[in-house]
Amino acid sequence: MPAHHVLADLRELAERTSTPEGAQRLAWGPVWRDARLWFAAKVAELGLRVTTDAAGNNWVLLPGGGPETVIIGGHLDSVPNGGWLDGALGVTVGLEALRMFATRRPPVSIAVVDWADEEGARFGRSLLGSSAASGSLKVEDIRGLVDRDGTRLVDALSENGVDVDRMLDAHAALKNISARGYLELHIEQGPVLEKMNRSTGVVLGTFGVERHMIRFVGQAAHSGSTPIAMRRDAFLAAAQTALECREIARRHSTPDAGVVCTVGVVKAEPGIVTAVPGVCEISLDQRALNAEVLARMLADARTASEQAASANNVSVEWRDLWRIEPRLFDPRLLQLCEEAVREVTGDAPKLPSGPLHDAAEMVPHMPVVMMFAYSSNGLSHCKEEDTPEPHLLQTIDAFLRLVEKTVDLSA
Ligand SMILES: [Zn+2]
Description:
The chain is an alpha+beta fold. It has helices spanning 2-17, 30-44, 88-102, 128-134, 139-142, 153-159, 169-175, 192-196, 234-252, 291-311, 331-345, 358-362, 389-408; strands at residues 18-19, 22-23, 50-52, 58-62, 69-74, 109-114, 179-187, 200-206, 208-217, 221-222, 260-262, 266-269, 275-276, 279-288, 315-324, 327-328, 350-353, 368-373. The model has no long low-confidence stretch (mean pLDDT 96).
């Protein structure tokens, strides 16, 4: 039973690379390297071998009859004290796809890629290997990165055979592949499938993100002697904006296209119980799958912040932190994914991905689709991360069916 093989592999990997606190496969470190040795040994059992590209991504190629390649991706790295499925599910199901086709020459080549440093848990740069392969990585942005212990990223890379100045050679290598499609299976890391009581979901794309800091400046004043009407309270303007941002998310959400707004950072000054806050800075993170909706959400948030500022007699200033456009998956692969999920589970719920994934980096270069597995209590990046076994087995079956459909697709 193919799905049971994947389960056995996942358990073996977890056993080998976890502590009671969870998975410890931090990118570029010894446990991660050991996980990769484990993977290489599994691949060797099939008479195949792992090759590493210039960015440290590990590739396995099973040559097929035609010129095209179906790529299956995942990542063996984890956050510290991470879950057993995040990333590893994608790699082990890829391994099983190789097993399925190793004995019969597939009509197209099949490649499995274990992306390096998807999590960015050590140096703060997520999707490191896949962004090098996609060519979107700006080497200057990462050259100066240092981890908590003072180790430089460039040194950690070179310890693993990666030269930071040559990482983008991985992009040239990717461009040489005539990719029919990129498929990735991942745990949802959220509560949506659980809420629907569905084991498997079709992922429509990854959310676009707008991330900003909003700074309100009023006047710090004595809390006892300053009448309410005369205050210029920066915190209240921020609080009003935050509440309005929740309304913005509610207003722009539809039953099949939810959007989110989050105020995750609040800094008030002077931070004294007896002073009216004179300065308050909040973060705003907005996400949507539709670019126009995201733009309208941002415009609405700006208006809300200006209204709140004027209502509280304070000024407001915005500072951009980061943005990425939505990455929509391929309609044809989405259809195959939907068929596969429906055939195995009887239903095919569709949902966007809130987190970014390596798949998002592949969207500009080839047709892409992702499938999600049910996430118990919506938890991930922790040792409690899990998918109940029946749901996991069904999802693996559905994904392998998607692989077969994509391989068999007439070009
Ligand atoms: Zn992941």
